[in-house]
Amino acid sequence: MDELILVRPRAEHAEQVMAYKEEMAKNGDSFDGCAGLEETETYEEWLDFDTRLKKKGYVPSEVFLAVRKEDNKVVGIIDYRRPLTPFLLKYGGNIGYSILPSERRKGYATQMLKLLLPVCKEYGEEKVLITCNKTNYPSQRTIIKNGGVLENEITYDASLGECGVVQRYWITL
């Protein structure tokens, strides 16, 4: 498996991130963990996380790009949200992530999450909540491989996701 590093988005990533957005949209994917990338027109607009996301009532988020060391390709986006609002506590969790469709099934999500967990601990977290749709088996495997323990399943308005059931996993740091 290729080694990844997590980096904060910088100007040099603009073209890759906008191509990421295009590939995700063409594939019909949700933009989980992308800090509202789907709602922006430009990379510069996306980078202004604090201003843009505060206006919508979102909590502070630490956003990282997963970059393959071998060729500096952005293969994923992951964000760590804190504190948990009632909505995040019930449905969204502390962490969201996505993998570029053309880079899936290579173990990148598992590696990204593993790299992010120490960051969460540095912010004082003792455990983090990660959620996924009940039918999202790749995400379930990623969470479990990183120590996730299923707490429960919650039924929700199907407009929030694919199947109407979210699984809530906790990872102790």
What can you see in these coordinates?
The chain is of the alpha+beta class. The protein has one domain: Gcn5-related N-acetyltransferase (GNAT) (Aminopeptidase, 3-Layer(aba) Sandwich), CATH 3.40.630. It has six helices and seven strands. It has helices at residues 14-26, 43-47, 49-55, 86-92, 108-122, 137-145, and strands spanning 4-7, 61-68, 73-81, 95-99, 127-133, 149-155, 165-172. The strands form two sheets. The protein has a four-stranded antiparallel sheet with strand order 1-2-3-4, sandwiched between helices. The model has no long low-confidence stretch (mean pLDDT 93).
Strand content: 25-35%
Distance between the termini: 24 Å
Based on helices, strands and strand pairing, what is the structural class? Answer: alpha+beta
Kindly give the count of domains.
Answer: 1
Number of strands: 7
Helix/strand order, N-terminal first: EHHHEEHEHEHEE
Average pLDDT works out at 93
Oligomeric form: single chain
CATH superfamily, called what? Answer: Gcn5-related N-acetyltransferase (GNAT)
Give the biggest sheet.
4 strands, antiparallel
Radius of gyration, whole Å: 15 Å
- What is the overall silhouette? globular
Biggest sheet strand line-up: 1-2-3-4
Low-confidence spans: none
Short description:
This protein is an alpha+beta fold and 173 residues long. It has six helices and seven strands, in the order βαααββαβαβαββ.
List the helices and strands and how they pair.
Layout: E1 4-7, H1 14-26, H2 43-47, H3 49-55, E2 61-68, E3 73-81, H4 86-92, E4 95-99, H5 108-122, E5 127-133, H6 137-145, E6 149-155, E7 165-172
Antiparallel strand pairs: 1-2, 2-3, 3-4, 5-7, 6-7
